[in-house]
Amino acid sequence: MKYLALASLLLAAVSVQAESPEVAMQPHPNVAPAVKNIDAKIAEGPFQAKWDSLSGYEIPQWYKDAKFGIFIHWGAYSVPAFGSEWYPRQMYINLDRRGDNFFQHHIDTYGPQKTFGYKDFIPSFKAEKFNADEWAKLFKDTGARYVIPVAEHHDGFPMYDCSFTKWDASEMGPKRDIVKELSVSVREQGMKFGVSSHRAFNWMFYVRNEAYDNADPQYADLYGRPMPFLFQENAWDYQNFFPPQDQQFKDDWLARSCEIVDKYQPDVFWFDFGITPDRKETYETNSYAEHLQKFAAYYYNQSKGWNDGIGVINYKFEAFPEDAAVLDKERSKMAEIRKPFWQTDTAVSASSWGYTENQRYKTPDRLVDDLVDIVSKNGCLLLNVGPRPDGTIPEEDQAILKAIGGWLKINGEAIYDTTYWTTFGEGPTSVSTGHVSESKDKPFTSEDIRFTAKGDVLYVTGMAWPKTNSITIKTLASDSKYYADDIGSITLLGSDEEIKWNRNAEGLTVSLPAKHPSEFAYVLKVTK
């Protein structure tokens, strides 16, 4: 069976068509007119392509109320299903990445990178079982309020009908506009729809060598132009070696990004790290800043005429001023409440964003705790799944999502439409705050408590059920500076049993029933 599958891949690869080197290296003819139109639209206002103008941005209320969204990493990288969604990059680098040597795996499985490159996986990326309605129903049942598929990952293969390349899902592989189909189905389920763009890192994504297919200029429309610095020995080390993108690349990026805005009217537009060539760069020193300002002005101006307020931009590090867009933290959290609203993006898998074999899955218990912790600190959670190349979502992913959805059906009122409280919580367990640092996190304990509020109601979420069926909340002691009011009633969400409690200078001690109303964390509803 393995050899039959390989033969099928090789046969499919023959159908991949190239482009003349001269044409592929030049700017796409549609880019210049697109940029001219973008500039004209920005001039109409009200937002201008300047940070002081963009800092007048206000986050729409629906987003601050939603708290929970679904991320989808899906592309041709799901075909090899090895290691991670960075397979397209690592298959050209003869170094281990997190214990795997993609380069040697590729040669052993498919042959040399010259004769079978990443482009040759695309014909086998068929999405023959993809059903946008089924996905949207699953995400709705999970309790998600918004959905963000990857419109284009670092690999340079858009999952939508892109006017600036033929290497996209509407013309190759699935031969369907995946983003459009999802936008319709997601909105029919009453959820908001967003997109993500990781294209900015395509500039540095593919390490080149004359022995690889990606060195051939005729494939520049997919891999990006084979710039001389990509052939250097240190080209793999993008964290320490990242030549800034040139004008041709940035104009193409701007044209693509604004086309997505026009075609799909996304409620959220998520950007990955490539929009800053160095994590230490700020929005004031970033060489990409002019194009980010143009995009933000264009997107905000266009989205002002849509329903439910202006669009949302997610960014990493310091690519934007914090009052001009929404900060996103990858696989990490905040230690305290952050007054400007923020977001964590993470995945059901600890090992990859895209589909691979032998995923290392997280438990739904852990993910529910993450959601509770993030919301208590004025954030929201964007949780990723990685579908198979045929368009099915793995059963393990689905089981995790359904478990979270079951918890939210009982306890969702402590999450949706809430705000952070005076303090986020109490307990001994801290969380990771550095970029991609969640692997350092320890499980929450029964002593860990988190708070959210809605009007006069305070929600107290215990991260783990105490073995004694009793919990003392020190923050709600009778002399508490946080809660000076008398407590009128306490109920346990999902339970009809009467809750007994006592409040003194040591804290609020609550006796819990023997029967748990739901799996994972539990929620006490405190009213005056």
Automatic annotation (TrEMBL):
- The Enzyme Commission number assigned here is 3.2.1.51
A biological-process GO annotation: glycoside catabolic process
Does the keyword section mention Hydrolase? yes
Alphabetically ordered keywords of this record:
Glycosidase, Hydrolase, Signal
* Keyword Ribosomal protein appears in the UniProt entry: no
**Domain Glycoside hydrolase family 29 N-terminal spans what residues?**
39-413
**For the Alpha-L-fucosidase C-terminal domain, which residue ranges apply?**
444-527
Q: Which GO terms describe its cellular component?
A: lysosome
Q: Give the enzyme class.
A: hydrolase
> Which family would the database say this protein is a member of?
Belongs to the glycosyl hydrolase 29 family.
Its annotated function is as follows:
Alpha-L-fucosidase is responsible for hydrolyzing the alpha-1,6-linked fucose joined to the reducing-end N-acetylglucosamine of the carbohydrate moieties of glycoproteins.
Q: Which PANTHER family match?
A: ALPHA-L-FUCOSIDASE, ALPHA-L-FUCOSIDASE-RELATED
Q: What is this protein called?
A: alpha-L-fucosidase
In which organism is this protein found?
A: Rubripirellula tenax
Organism taxonomic ancestry: Bacteria, Pseudomonadati, Planctomycetota, Planctomycetia, Pirellulales
